[in-house]
Amino acid sequence: MTSTAEPAAVQPRKSKAGLGRFVRWGLGLLLPLVVAVGWEAAVRLHWSDGRLVPPPSVIVATFMALAKTGELQRHVLVTTGRVAVGFGLGVIAGTMVGALAGYSSLTRRLIDPTMQALRAIPSIAWVPLFVLWFGIFEGSKITLIAVGVFFPVYLGVMGAVLSVDRKIVEVGRAFRLSGFQMVRRILLPAVLPHYVIALRSGLGLGWMFVVAAELLGASEGLGYLLVDGQQLGKPSQIVAAIVAFAIIGKITDWIIVLMSAPFLRWEDRAPGSMEA
Amino acid sequence: MLVLDRVGKTYPNGVRALDGIDLKVSPGEVVAVVGGSGCGKSTLLRAICGLDTPSQGRVLLDGETITSPHEKIGIVFQEARLLPWLSIAENVGFGLESWPRAEREQRVATALDRVGLGDKAGVWPRELSGGQAQRAAIARALVPRPEVLLLDEPFSALDAFTRADLQDHLLDLWSENRPTLILVTHDVDEAIVLADRILVMRPRPGRIYEEIAADLPRPRDRQSASFDHVKRRVLAALDRSMQRERRVDEGETRSEAGAGLWW
Questions:
Q1: Does residue A249 share a domain with residue A150?
Q2: Residue B218 phi/psi, 5° resolution?
Q3: Closest to B85 (Cβ–Cβ): which among A170, A173, A189?
Q4: Is there a single domain that holds both residue A121 and residue A140?
Q5: Chain B residue numbers touching A186 (CB-CB < 8 A)
Q6: Do residue A9 and residue A60 come from a single domain?
């Protein structure tokens, strides 16, 4: 009896779950859509002139105009390039120092207090010094981004290495793994989930600091678009740049998630949390 | 032949976990080690498999001194300790990485079938129940065909039914290649079901207090009178081994009834 009843009970539940997911997505979009449509209507009906808060149609038009002249692409490319280089350097340094500090307790005792002290400094405070050291062009901007990326990656990697289960390492020892095999077959896979999280928070900070760097003086980049929009009184350009930041920030984060997903399928995680 | 020659272990903090352990185990023999908590049972196993080195004496397998993990010695821990990022088949084949692929897969498949996990080959460890995970761990330890298999309270985290099932499973697997089995347990029934010889250990410092032969015919009937007889002997020995810890001298009847229940 039960065996025949079960598949019948599972079938509709499955399709309902698919529908439920669709509705959940829709629910998330509801608020911004209502606000956008409402504001558009308010401006169209002349309840507001929409000069300081441009309606969606004007923002889209500005976006399109910037894209048509190729200006948008140029600024996006410059900004993305800065983040890429800064992120790369920060990740390399953070990974190496973090792994070292996690692996050897002597190194950790030596450098971790200093690292924590440096981490407590708001990174923007470095800007004047970086400008003196590396000039006002790319050098100081990339250094600032790299510093912003370094700390979350350092902390994440160190914590991950420290938290590797001693019992699992013992399994490796019982199977007589060499040092290199131990790293490849036990430590790396064990550390990977934490590492991905560290990379994602590092990347988030990278995007934050590229804005700071570009606001402080740049002739190109999305941050420049922001400043330019403020100085020339073009709020639609500011919002367009913000939207561009949101889109590429999300896309780059998504790339990390997608690239790591095949290696993390084993993780016991709540369904759907991958979308975050 | 596995030989322990006056093995002792003193931890850096001065605790003497083991002292003067002499033991000879012939190939294919099943030995159970029982004793109260803190009597050095686990330390003994870790010394035999080379995860810890003894501070006195030595462990010899076929004349070779064991100082680090050895390919002829396998170990199953209290927890399954499967690697969560490998499928069950990959976990079971963990010790065979250097083997040709086809041969490895063949042997893993056979081992999985033997422990009744044939249909779980591609599944992640988190999808297994506790008993299934422990069976996979046993398969992982047995797949390289060790001469000695050490088991450190392997079934203590499982419920009674699963435990009895796995004990039978273990014997079934053992009968295939007949490795030497050394089993640490605090379940007297388990010791008698599995072992040819039962070592009762005494704490502080960990020593072998008494050796009891359990030469009952296999398969063993847990309800038989001879089983019960051996059980009484083991419980009595355990009780005596703990004597030092007793504060009050208890009456004979009390001691008999309470024997073996203290832990």
A1: yes
A2: -100, 150
A3: A189
A4: yes
A5: 83
A6: no
Q: Angle at the Cα of A34 (from A30 to A39), degrees rounded to 5? A: 155
In a domain, A275, yes or no: no
Instruction: Please tell me if residue A187 touches chain B, with a CB cutoff of 8 Å.
Output: no
Say what the alpha-carbon torsion angle B51, B54, B57, B62 is, to the nearest 10 degrees: 0
To probe the interface with A, which of B67, B83, B151 has the most A CB atoms within 10 Å? B83
A19 and A98 housed in the same domain: no
The answer on A40 and A121 residing in a single domain is no
In chain A, whose CA is at the least distance from the CA of B69? Answer: A174
Whether residues A65 and A40 share a domain: the answer is no
Q: Mean pLDDT, to the nearest integer, of A83-101?
A: 94
Q: Is residue A165 part of a domain?
A: yes
Q: Do A251 and A184 lie in a common domain?
A: yes
- CB-based contact B81 A175, cutoff 8 Å: no
**Structure confidence at residue A6 (pLDDT):** 40
Query: Are A95 and A173 in the same domain?
Result: yes
Report the pLDDT value the prediction gives residue B251, as an integer from 0 to 100: 42
Give CA A11 to chain center in angstroms.
Answer: 38
Q: What is the ipTM of this complex?
A: 0.79
Q: Per the CB < 8 Å rule, is B81 touching A168?
A: yes
Give the gap in angstroms from C-alpha B164 to the nearest C-alpha of chain A.
25
Q: Answer yes or no: is A63 within a domain.
A: yes
Put simply, whether A269 touches B (Cβ < 8 Å) is no
CA distance B164 to B168: 6
Domain that holds residue A19: 1-48
- H/E stretch holding B7 reads strand B2-10
In tens digits, what is the pLDDT along chain B, a chain of 263 residues?
Answer: 888 888 888 888 877 778 888 888 888 888 988 887 777 888 888 888 888 888 888 887 887 888 888 888 889 998 889 998 888 888 888 888 888 888 888 888 888 888 888 888 888 888 888 888 888 898 898 888 888 899 998 888 888 888 888 888 888 888 888 888 999 988 888 888 888 888 888 877 777 777 777 777 777 777 887 778 888 888 878 878 777 544 444 444 444 444 444 44
What's the CATH code, domain B2-258?
3.40.50.300
The minimum CA-CA distance between B95 and chain A, rounded to whole Å, is 6
Domain ranges (residues) in chain B? 2-258
Instruction: State the average pLDDT for chain A.
Output: 85
Closest CA to A221 of A201, A233, A204, A207: A207
DSSP result, A98-167: HHHHHH-HHHHHHHHHHHHHHHTS-GGGGHHHHHHHH-TTHHHHHHHHHHHHHHHHHHHHHHHHHTS-HH
Please report whether residue A80 resides in a domain: yes
Domain count, chain A: 2
